[in-house]
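Hi C.,

You asked whether I'd gotten around to modeling the 659-residue construct. I have! Everything is below, sequence then structure, no commentary in between.
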Amino acid sequence: MEFRRCVVALLMLLLAAALHAQPVLFTDLAKHSEHGTVKISPDGSYLATTNVVKGQAVLALIRLSDKTESTVRPRDGNDVVNYWWASPGRVLYTVGLRDSQFEEPYSLGELFAVDVDGGHPKMLYGFRKANTAAPDRGWATFIGGIANDPVHVLVEITPWEKQYPHNLLPIVYRMDVRDGRKEEVVAAPMEDASFVADHQGRIRFAYAEDADERMQVSVLQADGKSWLSLPKISAQRAYPLGFNADDSVAYFDCPQAPGVSGICSWDAKTHGLTPIWTHPEVEADGLLRGLARDSIIGISFTDGRPAVALLDNQSTDAKALMLLMKQFPGESVRFVSGTRDGRLSIVLVEADTDPGSFYLFDHRAHKLTLLLSRAPWIDPTKMASKQPFEFAARDGLKLRGYISFPPDRQDGKNLPMVVFVHGGPYGISDDWDYDPDVQAMTTRGYMVLQVNFRGSGGRGRDFTHAGWLQWGGKMQDDVTDATHWAVTRGLADPQRICIFGASYGGYAALEGAVKEPGLYKCAIGYAGIYDLKLMFKRGDIPQSKSGKNYLKQVLGEDMNLLAQHSPVNQLDALKARVMLIVGGDDTRAPPKHSLELRQALRKHQMDPVWLFKPHEGHGFRQEANNVELYTQLMQFLGATIGPGMPSVGGGTATKAAAH
């Protein structure tokens, strides 16, 4: 009998170990996050959050005392894009529709309001507003509230077409949140301007970047009507971010030599800027919130991993943040919303292995309560971590990126590797965040390498501009150099390497395969560009003058050179197997790119694996289609570079930082 009990116990342990060893399901990785953001009302009585219900982003309003919830569903299946507390009892929100060229919903410029209990819904502004003599033809953007005025807010409206006397200049209005009635406050001094108001509800700055990337910054004079240009600040490419809680300090993003930004304080009397934070290599991510709704306690930035620079380490807010950070070692901890008095705050905790959870922090009671998790079905202990690395490219430029090892592969040696290239390419970067695409590959045993090649964001304007005119040139060489770095360190098996990317990354995947035919065994292009000349004729970018100018600026106008750097014209050198992933409604990288590449490959007797979804756009949105994408991707990798080694637990990956 005792022997039987031991056998049963052993079988139970083996079963539990086997269940734990199973990698995360693709259906779980493909699920949309349940929540986007969480914001607490100014008085702390309610929460507002975006929930995804049957694929639609809705607004949920939750009373904290009894968890009673009201749900606001936008009309016509639209998604909630953003929302703000106008007062303790009323919320403003904007909606958008899904468009094939955008990963996120495209805002329609309409502004809505609703009470915290879901009552008195009202469209305040928008072209679909009923019972109006003339439709509202413009984009409305919330700027901020007005102190001691619970029924009015500041709203920026940019007209769709020229309107006398301001043409296309954005205009600030004081708007009634009950019915949308508005009165003009001031017009911007330049087109495409953004405004910055203080916490009293006074407009203080307007700024914009013109077509030649010149910054224009103006400050509103005491009369509230006339603007004073700030040419010295404009010449520095500095621009305003916001104010501290009592409006005594204005903060500016202020680039520092050699082209990396810093954060400065602005002197209202001298109009001078004083640096309060700089970093030699990375830009600021933004200002760091404190406990209260309007407080700023520092600067957030990413130096491999998320980091903070506190303005005053001894402040109450700073001590509270540091205390919370100790409770979640190895994760990013931030205040994202707070009450007016700072008693209650919303805390976001997230990591490279964790999609993130929102907590309610009661500062007076020193109590932290879990509110909502973005993806509670994901077990962080079974996910792969991202290890930052850096190295020097062939011309000496320092590059950074991330290596993600399969969970429990502590040796990190001689692994099958996928080089995963980000899209954009300009101003976009791979970050230390939870990425379901990366997890799909690592949890199936493949090491994933991501490099922020020149042109990427987060390293300053000079670093971004270094990628201009470098499609198929130095940007591609950076990806190649990162691949060789992993091989020379013994991390990657040189006979089992594939390259994969979406959008620009799709281009880089195919260009890498034809430019380095002995390096990659396979190339996966997802919503990619494969004929650079075609970019000037097809897709949404060349449909506007600004889009055409952008293409000339970053690609150049030498059509012969562009043809030479187009994968579709270089297939004689190709040795790698190819997989193409295509959305039929993609207007950013039209299917014509992939169709012509497939036809050219077939002429070379190299028929690619083809995954085509007629109703998807620039990146798959539907969960079922992403499950199929992951499944076919793993089959393709397995057939080309061999199967990976599935995770057998939830340990941490080996570190690969190099300096």
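If it helps when you're writing up: The mean pLDDT is 90.

Thanks,
B.
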